[in-house]
Write a structure and sequence with these properties.
The protein starts with a helix and ends in a 12-residue tail after the last helix. It is mainly alpha-helical and 141 residues long. The protein has helices at residues 3-34, 37-60, 67-89, 95-129. It contains four helices and no strands. The chain has one domain (3-129).
């Protein structure tokens, strides 16, 4: 990819996450603070829309997620899961917070296999994780 195309892709991705990602996070946090499942659901929907828009940009520029983007996404998912489990363990979640957290985590957990299946196909997605080894224990070429 040429340098101007890389810059354009980066600006589009940044703009998407600045608007939809931060807006979704704001709605999600507002839903948690007001104990409103519907507001949290709107935040989850905005985050899903940001992820889908990011995938569309990747398809237009014929590239995948960069390693830093993937690492950030996995780290954010881990931090959200840890915060949710911590809140549940100390009993600090209302019923609306509990269902909002479960909805968010389930949506994000479903998003990874859905992305892999749409990007690489079912067989190709499995091949991304399964490495065939030769008899000497080294990965096959």
């Amino acid at each position: 990819m040429s340098k101007p195309a890389m810059v354009e892709r980066d600006l589009l991705v940044f703009s998407i996450w600045a608007v939809l990602g931060l807006g979704g996070l704001a709605l999600l946090l507002e839903g948690f603070s007001r104990d409103s499942y519907l507001v949290s659901l709107a935040g989850t929907g905005a985050l899903v829309a940001a992820f889908v828009a990011h995938m569309v940009v990747n398809a237009v520029f014929d590239c995948g997620f960069r390693p830093g983007e993937a690492a950030l996404g996995i780290s954010a998912f881990g931090a959200l899961a840890l915060a949710f489990i911590g809140g549940w363990a100390v009993g600090g979640l209302s019923l609306a917070d509990y269902w909002s957290g479960l909805t968010l985590l389930a949506t994000l957990a479903f998003g990874l296999p859905a992305y892999l299946a749409t990007r690489y196909g079912l067989r190709g997605a499995f091949s991304r994780f399964h490495v065939r080894h030769t008899d000497d224990g080294k990965p096959a070429a």
